[in-house]
Each structure stands twice: as C-alpha cells, then as structure tokens.
Amino acid sequence: MHRSLSQLLGEGRRWFDDGLSAAMEAAGATPVSPAQLQLFSVLDPEGTTVSELARRMGVTRQTAHQAAHGLIAAGLLEQVPDPGSARRRLVRRTAEGERAHRLAASVLTRLEDRLAERIGGEAVAALRGALEAGWGEPPSLG
C-alpha cells in the first residue's frame, strides 16, 4: 500500500507524541491531550493570546481556548493581562508548566536520539533539513 507523504508525516508526529506522552506519564507529569501538547509547543515564553495560539495550531479559537483552559485547570498554564493591550490576555506557563516544558524538551531530545539510532543520524539530519526548508504557502492546485 502506497501511503502519501502527508500520512507518513502524521505517523511520524504520532510516534513523537506517543513517546512523549509515555515518558511524561512515567515521570509522573500531568497527563495532557495531543491538542494540549501542540498548544504547549507553540506557546511563547512570555505568553501568547488564544487567537494567536489558534492560528499557530491551525485550529479554531474555540479549540485553542478549550485546550488552554484544560491546561489552566491542570495548573500548567495561567492567564495574565497583556502589558501591551488592556483588552487582551496572555496564556503563559506556570512554574509547574515550566518544569513540564523542560522535561518534555529533554524527552524530545532523547526521542530524536533514539530515532537516529534506528534510521541513522544522516537520515535524521536530512529529515530535519527538509522540514526546516522554506516550503512557502500551499499552492492552489484547483
């Protein structure tokens, strides 16, 4: 069966997400959903608005809001006033959220190392290079 590159990229993303979730659970971290993992990965250190999180995640504002509020309820994020705008609020990591973020970064590095052991360091470097290349806007193929 021929799988599209899109499917393969999705499977690769799930491999990292599943490995990250298992390692975080083993370390006693608060369980989070895949959407919450994604939100955490696109959050700026100083905080980000829910609208900007939704744009970065490619989801609706409501979906980003639900993911953020689940993480707020878990004590990993908090909402604070935006110093640049009296009307906006920023979502940012709490101290516990910072600890979880550092642990996740360490786990992801170990997962990349494991992937390099399995498929080779050159293959991982080539994959990284291809994914970091500027792809531009999606073409209109209509």
Percent of residues in helical segments? 55-70%
Q: What letter string, H or E per element, gives the SSE order?
A: HHHHEEHH
Instruction: Determine and state the CATH class.
Output: Mainly Alpha
Summed up, the helix count is 6
GO molecular function, one term: DNA-binding transcription factor activity
Organism: Streptomyces mobaraensis (Streptoverticillium mobaraense)
Protein name: Winged helix-turn-helix transcriptional regulator
Domain HTH marR-type: 25-124
Question: Could you characterize what this model shows?
Answer:
The chain is mostly helical. The protein has one domain: Arc Repressor Mutant, subunit A (Orthogonal Bundle), CATH 1.10.10.10. The chain is built from six helices and two strands. Strand 1 and strand 2 form a beta hairpin. The protein is globular, with a radius of gyration of 17 Å. The two termini are 26 Å apart.
What is the topology?
Blueprint lengths: L4 H22 L7 H9 L7 H8 L3 H13 L3 E6 L2 E9 L1 H25 L1 H12 L10
Helix pairs in contact: 1-5, 3-4, 5-6
Protein name: Winged helix-turn-helix transcriptional regulator
InterPro entries: HTH_MarR-typ, MarR/SlyA-like, WH-like_DNA-bd_sf, WH_DNA-bd_sf
GO molecular function, one term: DNA-binding transcription factor activity
Which short descriptors sum up this protein?
142 residues, mainly alpha, Arc Repressor Mutant, subunit A, MarR/SlyA-like, WH-like_DNA-bd_sf, Winged helix-turn-helix transcriptional regulator
Describe the structure concisely.
This protein is mainly alpha-helical and 142 residues long. The chain has helices at 5-26, 34-42, 50-57, 61-73, 95-119, 121-132; strands at residues 77-82, 85-93. Strand 1 and strand 2 (85-93) form a beta hairpin.
